[in-house]
Amino acid sequence: MVIFIFFLFMWCPKASYIVMDQDALKVLEGRDIHEKRLIASITKVMTAYVIIKEVDDLNAIVKVGSEINDAHGSNIYLKTNEEITIKDLLYGMMLRSGNDAATVLAYYLYNDVNRFVDLMNIYAKKIGMKNTLFQNPTGLDDDGTINISTAYDMALLTSKAMKDETFRKIFSTKYYSTKTNVNSYTWKNKNKALFMKEFVTGGKTGFTKKARRTLITTASKKNMNITIVTLNVNDDFNFHVNKYNNIFKSYKKILILNKTNIKPIKSSVINFYVKDNYYMLTNNEKSLVQKLNIVYEVYDEEIKRKHHLVGKVVIYNNKDILYESPMYAKYMLS
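The structure corresponding to this sequence follows.
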């Protein structure tokens, strides 16, 4: 099966993919991960992320307006004057890729799609998506607007979005039912990978004739959390599942930095610490540890308070910074 998937991938000359450690945001493997491409409906990951971050009450009710007349392609078939919650629209957009739901959500914040798209690009910049430009909230590319991104940027977005509990819940939902003033809905997630393996924790599908198949999925097993993005890969569901099988078989998660065992200088009265442990996934622990260099920068040794910012910890792989964290000190004597 692995050989079959490899050749299947190689027959897609414009294909790109990435496997990312969701927690450390480290690339485990990939091909053409920074190649700019059309991304189709995986665009809606950003649309959902912006709405979740910007809207305080997801149970707020929206009255659907004439904006849905501009939505075509994949829809949940909303009706003008239908009353539906923001939360229901998010589920309809993510599970069934409803372009009408995405359009209504975009209008909700500003009553202006262009202003919403500007906000999508602001979030992209904050996240660090350096090769991404959004021009619409749906991913459609036949109306004069297109969304351009890369496998890396979309994996980065998804990995950061997965830290949000509301996003994770929507992203992982297989079935969802709701009722409005004019209709009852039951939706099944289009992401077939969710139904193939228990370790798959979420995903978003996409397709247009120009972009071809696009797919994001996430998976968790053995305390490892992984994001995979494929752009223009045939049989992408099997490709993702086989990649996960290989990763979970060959990698393990190891502790690189113990948050309570930091010793930048010798002291019997001071405990140094960072706020979180730092882990990395590796398929060669000995080689990884040999490559890493942990540097402690202490810029304040006048430690007089019980909890005091005194410096930072930086972990390097050669010259590349893998991790950076503020370092604190706890003075043990009062």
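The two ends are 64 Å apart (CA to CA).
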